[in-house]
Amino acid sequence: MTSGLTRRQVLAGGAAGGAALALGLNPAQAQTWPARPVTVICPWGAGGGTDATVRIVSAVLEKELKQPFNVVNRTGGSGVVGHAAIASAAPDGYTIGILTVEISMLHWQGLTEFRPDSYTPLALMNEDPPGIQVNASSPYKTVKELADAVKAAPPGKLKASGTGQGGIWHLALVGWLTAMGLKPDHVAWVPLNGAAPAMQDLAAGGLDIVTCSVPEARAMIEAGKARSLAIMAAERNPAFKDVPTLKEAMGIDYTTGAWRGIAGPKGMPPETVAAMTAALKKVNESSEFRDFMASRGFGVRWAPGAEFGSFMEAGDKAMGVAMKAAGLAKG
Amino acid sequence: MSTLFEAIGMVCQTDVLIAILLSSIYGLVVGSLPGLSATMATALLVPVTFYLSPIAAIATIISASAMAIFSGDIPGALLRIPGTPASAAYTDEAYAMTRKGQPEMALGIGLWFSALGGIAGTISLMLLAPPLAEIALNFSTFEYFWLAFLGLMCATLVARSSPVKAIASMFLGLLVSCVGIDNPAGAARFTFGSVDLLGGIEPIPALVGVFAVSEVMRAMLTSEPPKLPYRRFGSILAGQIALTKQYVKPQVRGNIVGIIIGVLPGAGADMAAWVSYAMSKRFSKTPEKFGTGHPEGLIEAGASNNASLASGWVPALLFGIPGDTITAIAIGVLYMKGLNPGPTLFTERASSMYALYIIFILANIIMIPLGIVMIRAASHVLRAPRAAIMPVIVLLCAVGAFATGNNLYSVMIVAAFGIIGFVMERNGYPVAAMVLGIVMGTMVEQSFVTSIIKSDGSILPFFERPVSAVLASFTIAALLWPLGAWLWRLRSRPLAQ
Description:
The complex is a heterodimer of chains A (331) and B (497). Chain A has 331 residues and is of the alpha/beta class. Helix content of chain A is 41%, strand content 18%. In chain A, 54% of the residues are buried. Chain B is globular and about 65 Å long.
């Protein structure tokens, strides 16, 4: 009775296939997603924080959905190349990728046509707020003392870094300065190739302030070469309980952060989106993911589909304002 | 003492030993393929490390990168195609040795002195990590500027052609390094609206193009050179002990320079090899022999690039700051495996640290037998007909380039630089100097511009800071040396007459 296909099953299968074809869908999609391996694009290089995050997410997805999730690094052009590759993939659910905060910045600089709304948002997985770090031998013990010194110093005298010109940590500094009523360039920005060289230069005495996420500064802080004075977040980081938020320390309600989330090209089938968001929720709650993020000191965030979309939209607007104020936006 | 035994126990796990062996073989193969660098060998291992125990994960990275840096010398010596940028500095020298009928000598030097250099680097890591890390922390952008500038000056020292042509090639390399958006101002330069060019021109595809593809093009134009009489390779290690005794000074100098350059974040094995080769020529009693298959430079540079590999872990382990691109990847793995970098790693997790040292030593020891097998296998390349080798090389270049960015853009870069390299070589411009320009260009520009921003446009800090002043005087002395020598000759000539 159970051996072989019945006539009815064949007919039903044919009808379903026909319906799928009539709808212009790939027959594979008519089955439950995922029916074959999924490609996950990472716009940043292997070995970095984004790469590590997307790989742990893919590893758990693979276990959850019983299909391989292959991570492919499409690097170059400050993330432009990889983000473009995600947006222009076929929206069949078999190519997705990890978006980073840069997608809400690059288009303001005129470097890409893709914006947060060029994607189908699936889930926000992580956000890391910037901290304000100084050299361990610096006279400023609290962020308030530092702020007073910044205000007293002539424009451009103090130097800060954390990443390249117009990068997320540059905008974090601009946001903080603007919130204190200062000009965006009151503290001169020294463009360096990432947070690690900036922390090194801070220890070498070449810089006064470094704005980068606390996990990025962690090893230097633990080595006693640098101090974190505050973080630009709504809450303290559980791994660094004694670092206050800006609001607690100065009453300035300014928060920002570098985030990472999973998304696909625009126009993915809604049932695939639902299946994927559900799977990503399980990933976000899994102990593997949580343990990994905790071990790297990365912050866990969760926002499904549309919520992630509106999170990106809001961030995009705020970035536009900050970048125009700092003279970093084009046009 | 008990921590040491604990560490030996950690390393002697079956999974760790298998990981060392397999990743060593993997590193040897990847490093010997043109277009696949040691950095890439490491990056490709990251997904594998997810499934390994912490010590095994670190062991794969240490062994694969050490093997890859050595085996980059193999295609360089046999085919004049460097496998990794770290071998580019002395490829011509090693190839000249092969043409002289001493391929086993050239490769034996690479193997033996790489292993010794690696062990010297490890010892520096074991004994001197904290003071070395303090040196690294004294380097700000001002010091890096002088260092990169000194690196660029190696172009004229290394080249056999006229210094003017070497400088011209180097400037072309500097121009190439200007392409893209990864510059201090974040401005898109020479991108012509292309998204791919925004990312700039990576040194690896350019290197593969100018060395490998142009070599294939040359081979197509010339008739096959007289075959080297085939014979089974003689002992690969024979004579290495004698060379070790004969060239003590270059070897020690190579190790020290390699260790120092490795410790400095941002300067890795590539720069160590260049600087050491140039130093070797400068201080040699017989500089005229360089480029004709002379062992001295090979010894110094081969020791240097492997020594830098181990010392590159010093800032990575103490401050989480990468010493080179390989340790940048390794730091991610360290965090993932709960071995968070920082001074506590040396105190609270001392047994893990000892385990790491033991793995370094082990990897450099098994490099010798595995390397010999690899060299013997690769030696058949010399016997194969050229018509069979060349297409395979082109294929490997294309695959390797594709793998670096997962798109065709890098493959086009390889092709374009193949043509550029071919034209340059025909006209006597050394391509190695151009590669040096591409590798160093970003660092020179970045360190100069950021320093000027920090000093509000004043150039005084370039000479005021103590380390900076020392480096500046080296650079200026090296610049003025030829002028001084010329004046000296001018003055002494009338006397001699």
